[in-house]
Write a structure and sequence with these properties.
The protein is built from ten helices and five strands. The protein is 76% helix and 5% strand. The protein is mostly helical. The strands form two sheets. It has a three-stranded mixed beta sheet with strand order 4-3-5. It has one domain (2-302): Rhodopsin 7-helix transmembrane proteins (Rhopdopsin 7-helix transmembrane proteins, Up-down Bundle). The protein has helices at residues 23-53, 60-89, 96-129, 134-137, 140-166, 182-187, 194-228, 233-261, 270-295, 297-315; strands at 2-5, 8-11, 13-16, 93-95, 174-175.
Length: 316
């Protein structure tokens, strides 16, 4: 429902129009999204459980990994359940308040994950390049304070963008996307969105995107240098395996994120944006626990221990 005032529409709800229009395609997409959602929840919950239950994983690296899994669960749960309901019911409407809430939490969790990935890189730098001081630099108290910093940074970043979007008048209420996000909402605005685009590029692109990414790259330049100075091949492979998992996640997350947000409005392509958004918001949270469990020997060992204990308890 909307109220027209001249060329401006006072939007009371939006319609999400980015879904396929044929029943067969909707069934395929529903099945695919449901499978990804179940895998994502299962994988990330398993990471959280083993980092809590295994005493050998009670260190900053795995505390951060557990928090990354928690963010990923929240992140995918903001968008995918509504997508599934839309596909199942063919009701594409979402209230204005619901759309703004979805927008807020999407941006909030994206920003928190960007900062958390930078903190994880700093943790690896401290562990590998400053091993004698690691226990002081990254004790549990410092670790939790850094996680809180990531959450607060993400919340403030999201609040800024959400307030800038809320003030816009809209000429239409049809969002040609899969969920409420900044680029498709800017397309609907009746006024110039230069301020929104400038803040998006400056704040998201520099302070939440480029800044943490440069910090990650600088940290890993020093980590790689330290790896090459190691004399033990076993230690070198172990360190490289752990760092490689994190770098794969960083590459996927920042690559699709920069494609989504750090561009001028004139270069938006809604079809490409929908594909990038699926990778950024749906595929990446699913890949994170898979990458870490496949490339981290300690996680794999802990998983085997948990499964053995579960099988033993069932036999009893």
């Amino acid at each position: 429902m909307s109220t027209a005032r001249g060329n401006v529409t006072e939007v009371l709800h939006f319609n999400i129009l980015g879904f396929p229009d044929t029943l067969e395609k909707r069934i395929v997409l529903f099945t695919l999204l449901l499978g990804i959602y179940v895998i994502t929840l299962s994988g990330n919950l398993l990471i959280i459980i083993i980092t809590k239950l295994d005493s050998s994983l009670q260190n900053p690296m795995y505390i951060l990994l557990g928090n990354l899994s928690l963010i990923d669960i929240c992140y995918i749960s903001v968008t995918v359940p509504h997508m599934l309901m839309t596909l199942a019911s063919n009701d594409t409407s979402i209230s204005f308040v619901g759309c703004m809430a979805q927008l807020f939490f999407v941006i909030f969790l994206e920003g928190a994950e960007c900062i958390l990935l930078a903190i994880m890189a700093y943790d690896r730098y401290a562990a590998i390049c400053k091993p004698l001081y690691y226990a002081i630099i990254m004790d549990r108290g410092v670790c939790y304070k850094l996680v809180l910093l990531a959450v607060l940074w993400g919340a403030l970043h999201s609040l800024l963008h959400t307030l800038l979007i809320v003030r816009l008048p809209f000429c239409d209420n049809g969002i040609n996307h899969l969920f409420c996000d900044i680029p498709p909402l800017l397309k609907l605005s009746c006024i110039d969105t230069y301020l929104n685009e400038t803040v998006l590029f400056a704040v998201s692109g520099v302070f939440v995107g480029l800044g943490p990414l440069l910090f990650i790259l600088i940290s890993y330049v020093q980590v790689v240098s330290a790896i090459f100075e190691m004399t033990s091949d076993v230690a070198r492979r172990k360190v490289f395996s752990t760092c490689a998992a994190h770098l794969i996640i960083v590459t996927t997350f920042y690559g699709t994120g920069s494609f989504n947000y750090v561009r001028p409005k004139s270069s938006y392509s809604l079809e490409r944006d929908k594909l990038a958004s699926v990778v950024y918001n749906v595929i990446t949270p699913m890949l994170n626990p898979i990458i870490y469990s496949l490339r981290n020997s300690e996680v794999k060992r802990s998983l085997r221990d948990v499964l053995r204990r579960y099988q033993f308890s069932r036999k009893r």
